[in-house]
Amino acid sequence: MSTVTPSSAPTMAPIGERRPITTTSLGRFLAVRRNTILTVGGILLALMSITRLWTGEHPLTSSGTIGTALRLTVPIMLAGLAALWAERCGVLNIGIEGMMILGTWGAGFGAWKWGAWVGLGLGILGGMLGGLIHAVATVRFNVDQVISGVVLNIFGFFGARYLSDLIFVGEQGGGVSQSPQQKSGIPKFDTPFLAGGDLFGWKSPDFFGWLEKKRWFLVGDIGGIGKGLTVNLSWLTVLAVLMVPLTFWIMWRTRFGLRLRSSGEAPSAAESLGVKVIPLRYAGLLISGALAGFGGATLAIVASSYYRQGQTGGRGFIGMAAMIFGNWRPLGIAGGAAVFGYSDGVKLVASSSLPALFLFVTLVAGLMVIVSLVRKRTITVITAFVTGALFFTAYLTVKEVPESLTQSVPYVATLVVLATASKRLRPPAQAGVKYRPGEGH
Q1: Degrees (nearest 5) of the Cα angle 169, 175, 180?
Q2: 53 or 29, which is more confident?
Q3: Among 155, 156, 149, 147, which Cα is nearest to 134's?
Q4: pLDDT of residue 418
Q5: What's the whole-model pTM score?
Q6: Concatenated DSSP letters for 225-269?
Q7: What b/e readout covers 285-300, taking b as 16+ CB neighbours within 10 angstroms?
């Protein structure tokens, strides 16, 4: 009779205990996710290309539309990352809008006095001030986190207006609702070889522009999207996009990130292991405020050249929706922000192409019906079919979308995204829960 030695016996985790995540299993998981993202992205791009060729609405994927969408995506993405840092450390941050307002005012003031780079620094400091106020209220004094965030939004709005009245009134181009023009802007560039940028004085080829002019199936769309992402780029936009991989690396690849996430998942357990939860929450909210201020600064420096009252336009709240859509993950937040930024970009640059998006949604809904039938998900089949029928009817009957309706496109997209993403969400376990050191252990 053969026997199994202890060394050769398979190891099993105790019941109810998770197996440790090894490097191999993590690599396989990331590879599967990458392949899934590429597949879904390719299918959506193909459906958009079919829509463009069918309707003749080439602005849907033109470089102008995509470039505008990128500039509109950046502040929403930074607001979403700000919400991520706060909730990962265990604190709800409803006050992102107020932090962004402080960022826009600080950026407008600094850019007017000393130039755009100083404006960026002051915008980030303005957001950090909001983060510090929220941290003192919620972490130190255990004020209700929602109430603190709402008060911070009010403080940001009226504080910026008071400072404008104090400093900008009487200055050339300034007033109670806006700052004077910035002293100098941040340089912009076209990427060499991809978008025809200069290379040491030599005009390089415009590869994506050449593809865009062809307007072929998929090829023209890749060209338009590629050129939109690589032409007339601000260095501020590049820095903002780099915040996504930097956030992922810090949160999931460093000891600081692990401890910060533990303070949002199980603060009592983390404290029992020697993790200082309170300082981590202060750090998380300061970083959250810095990112929100960064987002506000891009609005004052890149989207325009001065601070203007109402400049944020609710992007702090849309950023929170992007965070929920992205399931509290940096890459998901970037994807959610891109959805909102694209819908806003189409509204501004190619509003006449909006009816064509009805056809695109119809095609996506039809694909969801097929996939759901294969997976035998009856409710999803019915929902997708009804959605597709409604949008196809709108495509056939609506020839011009009223201006009042186009203004609501980003907010409608927010509601649709939250409704479709609600079943797969996993927020930090203790986000929004009050905590005092020493409790629970």
Answers
A1: 100
A2: 53
A3: 149
A4: 63
A5: 0.89
A6: HHHHHHSSEEHHHHHHHHHHHHHHHHHHHSHHHHHHHHHHH-HHH
A7: bbbbbbbbbbbbbbbb
Please name the residue that has the structure tokens 């060394």. 7
Q: In angstroms, rounded to a whole number, what is the distance separating the alpha carbons of residues 410 and 344?
A: 6
**Smallest Cα–Cα separation from 415: which of 313, 318, 338?**
318
* DSSP assignments along 177-232, one per residue: TBPPPPSS---EEPPTTTS--EETTEE---HHHHHHHH--TTHHHHHHHHHHHHSS
Nearest Cα neighbor of 119 from 340, 303, 347, 306 is: 306
CA distances from 422 to 265, 323, 326, 331, 406 (A): 20, 12, 11, 18, 25
Tokens, residue 296: 């506000």
- So what's the pLDDT on residue 21? 46
Domains of the chain: 55-190+232-349 (1.10.3470)
Which pair of tokens denotes residue 140?
């130190």
Q: What is the pLDDT of residue 238?
A: 95
3-state DSSP assignment of residue 175: strand
Q: Are strands 202-203 and 188-189 parallel, antiparallel or unpaired?
A: unpaired
11 phi/psi in degrees, rounded to 5: -90, 140
C-alpha to C-alpha distances, 49 to 3, 237, 329, nearest whole angstrom: 62, 27, 28
Query: Residue 63, SS3?
Result: helix
Q: How far apart are CA 271 and CA 153, in angstroms?
A: 31
Residue 99: closest CA among 159, 19, 29: 159
Q: What does the alpha-carbon distance between residue 380 and residue 364 come to, in Å, rounded to a whole number?
A: 13
Asked if 237 and 294 count as a contact pair (C-beta separation under 8 A), the reply is no
